[in-house]
Amino acid sequence: MNRRNFLKGATSLTVGASLLPLFKSLPAAAANNETAVVVIGGTINSLDIHRSGTNRDSYQVAINCYDRLVSFGTKQMPDGSLSYDYDNVQPELAESWEISEDGTEMLFTIKEGATFWDGKPVTAHDVKWSLDRAVSLGGFPTVQMKAGRLVSPDQFQVVDDRTFRITLPFASKLALPDLATPIPIVINSEVAKAHATPDDPWATEYLHRNPAGSGAYKVARWDAGQQLVYERNDNWSGGRVPGFQRVILREVPAQSTRRALIERGSVHASVNIPNKDAKELASKPGVKVVSTPIENCIYSLCTNVDFEPFKDKRVRQAIAWAIPYQKIFEQAAYEQGIPMWGGTSTVDNIQWPQKSPYNQNIEKARALMAEAGYADGFEVPLSFNLSHADWAEPAALQIQQGLAEIGIRTTIEKIPGANWRTIALVEKKLPLHLENFGGWLNTPDYYFFWAYIKGNLFNSYNYDNPEMAKLVEDTLDMAVDHPDYAPNVTRMIELAFDEIPRIPLWQPTLNVAFNDKVEGYEYWFHRQMDIRALKPV
Predict the structure, then answer these.
(1) Are 38 and 268 in contact (CB under 8 A)?
(2) N or C: lower Cβ tally within 10 Å for the chain?
(3) 114-149, pLDDT tens digit by residue?
(4) Angstrom distance (rounded) from CA 81 to CA 91
(5) What is the pLDDT averaged over residues 38-42?
(6) Looking at residue 13, what is its pLDDT?
């Protein structure tokens, strides 16, 4: 089959009501050792991670089509599966780097022979233009760069074509790992500049549809809302050349369709499948399910302290004692993941996430409600993101029943996913809601920075405590072996559990199902499929 006919066949794949034609057209591709077929439930809305409004499903383009200076290594999980290793930073475009004794300068040497797809050598000039872009365009990319104290183009210097310097305002343990996230991609600056305009100096319109990278895969075709077709870059210098020549990424909104496709062996992989399907598919012949705990992530019930009853921490504690955790774990998580309740009454280590000391205890909850002056309870809406209904709706129903036992009467509100981020995270006006957050940089203090500091995005409940703020400020850039690090993190966890604005339910897993024709999958913190490691069995 030539490339033109292959792509024509790829675009004929259909979904939903046209399931039969999809079954007819996919098995041949899935049986081909040169081609992998992967299905996702989301939609890719841009090929440029720096563009305003680019969604999470689009991040995987940055991973597969672009390189960064550095990446993370690989470790084996207890179940034998593979995961990225946050504690093992590895070269990608940089063959080596040096960090000054005071930790404020990082000097990178770019691999000799590294080239973009068009054959142009990757130079320090491309790295500077790309990082300048990431810190200048604003929005999430600029905020993520700031986490590593990368905030200004003035910090980036071209020493020569293969040498690049980053200067930090002060040493930070987050700076180097931040360069391994999907954001600091290295773009072919000559191509981008050729398509820039006075109104669009960073070529966002061009790069939105036309990646210009050096990564393991090129984009052969993008049909927005349907599919993305990748083609291997055989000259990739960032790592081992991928096992598949082509990968067809199909957008299939209906989970029942995605499940049927993986059960029949019509596709190689189905990404981010619900817990119920993960549990059931694991026993199916010819199907392998990899369920990896999402590091630094907790599904939680959040109590907005701007809502009058929740200003009293005894009410928040009462709610934490009233939740039927085990029933939620069984009916919403299908026992996939790690319970985050029933821990010890004291914080004995700084592992994060860790179990809170709460468990269901209705008598204790009622006593706290009476102490706070709410013996007769009150009414409050309980909200969740409709896009997360597979776990959030059964969790909300169980929470509703548990809170009714202590007089709190809830009305469940289902908010469309398109509106959730604005209402919950930006406006922060939901009194009681289900939320999840997982930090890309895997340290406890990074989690507390985003979720417990007033005004930060994932503090959706307006929690504000000067002691917590000071602890985070002092600790965020501190080395983990500093003598104050562990005591500071211990105190953060103690405050979080005592004041309990965010009530932990469970640590979720990322579930990916495969047929028996593919191997090599590796879990990543960004929760998107890294197709570079996939290979035919």
Answers:
(1) yes
(2) C
(3) 999 999 999 999 999 999 999 999 988 998 999 999
(4) 22
(5) 93
(6) 39
Contact between 71 and 180 under an 8 Å Cβ cutoff? The reply is: yes
Query: Concatenated DSSP letters for 505-523?
Result: EEE-EEEEEEETTEE--EE
| Cβ 168 vs Cβ 149: under 8 Å | yes
**Pair (403, 434) in one structural domain:** yes
d(CA 26, CA 36): 10
User: pLDDT class for 29, splitting at 50, 70, 90?
Assistant: very low
Spatial separation of the C-alpha atoms in residues 479 and 189, rounded to whole Å: 35
Q: Is residue 115 part of a domain?
A: no
In the prediction, which pLDDT does 45 show? 92
pLDDT in tens, 56-69: 899 999 999 999 99
Q: How confident is the model at residue 2 (pLDDT cuts 50, 70, 90)?
A: very low
Q: Are residues 457 and 334 in the same domain?
A: yes
Checking if the pLDDT of 409 tops 90, the result is yes
Tell whether 316 and 444 lie within a shared domain. Answer: yes
Q: What is the C-alpha separation between 90 and 518, in angstroms, rounded?
A: 25
- Does 360 lie in the same domain as 249? no
- How far is 442 from 295, CA to CA, in rounded Å? 7
Is the Cβ–Cβ distance between 119 and 136 less than 8 Å?
no
- Co-location of 528 and 449 in the same domain: no
**CA 301, CA 503: separation in Å to the nearest integer?**
5
Residue 161 phi, psi (nearest 5): -60, -30
CATH number, domain containing residue 390: 3.10.105.10
Domain assignment of residue 398, given as a range = 298-507
Structural domains counted in the chain: 2
If asked whether residues 254 and 394 sit together in one domain, one would say no
- Let me know if 260 is exposed, middle or buried by CB neighbors in 10 A (0-12, 13-18, 19+): middle
Q: Tokens in use for 525?
A: 């913190």
Within 10 angstroms of residue 127's Cβ, the number of other Cβ atoms is: 25
Considering the domain architecture, whether residues 260 and 304 belong to the same structural domain is answered as no
- Other Cβ atoms less than 10 A from the Cβ of 1: the count is 13
pLDDT bucket at 188, cuts 50 / 70 / 90? very high
How far apart CA 49 and CA 185 sit, in angstroms, is 9
Find the CATH number of the domain harbouring 281.
Answer: 3.40.190.10
Share of the chain above pLDDT 70, in %: 94
Q: What percent of the chain has pLDDT over 90?
A: 88
